[in-house]
Specification:
With about 350 residues, this protein is α+β, with helices and mostly antiparallel strands. It is built from nine helices and nine strands.
């Protein structure tokens, strides 16, 4: 007899079985992939948590070191103030000597205020509470003020402070003139501080580009000081750096934060033994109209004439401060009413 053989693929005869197997394989692959993804996420979470804990621990340690240093740096000028005032009281019969002690006390007080202001500014910046003014100003006035403020300290130290010709297409801008001046004063004072006698500090300002109503203004501060090492440069703009030789050590961190807040950049380059260069770029909106220079301050005589016979209400909760302010105002022949709040 004859046999007829037919070959039928198993995938057809066992179609339902194959479909079930595919579903099971797909489900197993999905489960394995999900477990792997969850494991990776958990691992990432653990690593991130560990890194954040290390960062927070390091930051807490830095803040602790910083506060220890600050307590010392605050006590130093306070001791000078108390000591100088005590010596002034002992020298009342010698006005020239007393005046010298009081001048030292005044300078120590101003230095103490600078340190405390730095701490308050850093706290506001760190907490995101710093707000910037948006007012028209003359950039030339800001630069003149910086040079005027730093000429005295530079001269006392025997350092030449000079300004390069200003390369500005415009003079009137809109922004926060006080904060720009604060940044420049910080940079220039640092340069003077770390430049040896007979050294040189230069400030330059240039309007490097224009984009619509906004200009990019570049400020450069160069010095011929000792320069900085690579290791120091890496932490240059970090807050709470306790390696600062004098002051709060917050100056450059404040500059960096303020410049970022203004939408700008600040960077530094340095060669040990040859000096440092700081470049600060800030976008500034140009003022619609030219800002006029404010009238010069009235003379003391005119001010006294203006105030004479006026009545002033002074609200001050500290008794000693009330007495001091009343004494200062008495020189202007005003009648003062005082209240605690």
């Amino acid at each position: 007899g004859r046999n007829i053989v037919m070959a039928i693929p198993v995938s057809i005869t066992a179609q339902a079985t194959f479909a079930s197997m595919k579903s099971v394989i797909a489900l197993v692959v999905l489960i394995v992939a999900s477990i792997a993804a969850l494991s990776l996420l958990w691992l990432y979470h653990l690593v991130s948590k560990s890194q954040m804990a290390k960062i927070e621990s390091a930051r807490a340690s830095l803040k602790s070191d910083f506060l220890t240093k600050m307590s010392h740096d605050i006590r130093t000028p306070l001791n000078a103030i108390v000591g100088s005032n005590e010596l002034a009281l002992r020298s009342l019969d010698d006005p020239a000597t007393a005046a010298g002690h009081l001048e030292r006390s005044k300078k120590s007080g101003e230095y103490l205020i600078d340190i405390i202001n730095d701490m308050l500014d850093m706290n506001r910046l760190d907490g995101g509470k710093m707000t910037l003014a948006h007012e028209p100003f003359l950039l030339s006035d800001v630069l003149d003020s910086v040079i005027a403020l730093q000429s005295g300290p530079a001269e006392e130290k025997g350092v030449t402070l000079r300004e390069a010709p200003r390369a500005l297409s415009h003079t009137s801008f809109v922004g926060d003139a006080t904060r720009i001046k604060q940044c420049l004063v910080n940079l220039v004072s640092n340069a003077v501080k770390f430049t040896p006698e007979h050294g040189d500090v230069a400030l330059s300002c240039e309007e490097v580009s224009q984009d619509g109503p906004t200009s990019r203004v570049r400020f450069i501060v160069r010095d011929s000081g000792a320069g900085m090492s690579e290791a120091f440069m890496k932490r240059l703009f970090e807050p709470f750096d306790t390696s600062a030789q004098v002051g709060s050590g917050l100056g450059l961190a404040i500059v960096h934060s303020l410049v970022e807040l203004m939408g700008g950049t600040v960077e530094a380059s340095s060669t040990p033994g040859k000096g440092s260069t700081f470049i600060m770029d800030i976008p500034l909106e140009r003022a619609a109209t030219v800002v006029s220079r404010p009238a010069s301050e009235q003379s003391q005589e005119n001010l006294r004439a203006l105030c004479r016979g006026k009545r002033v209400l002074l609200a001050e909760d500290n008794e000693m401060n009330r007495e001091i302010i009343v004494d200062l105002l008495s020189d202007f022949s005003v009648e003062v009413d005082t209240v605690r709040n």
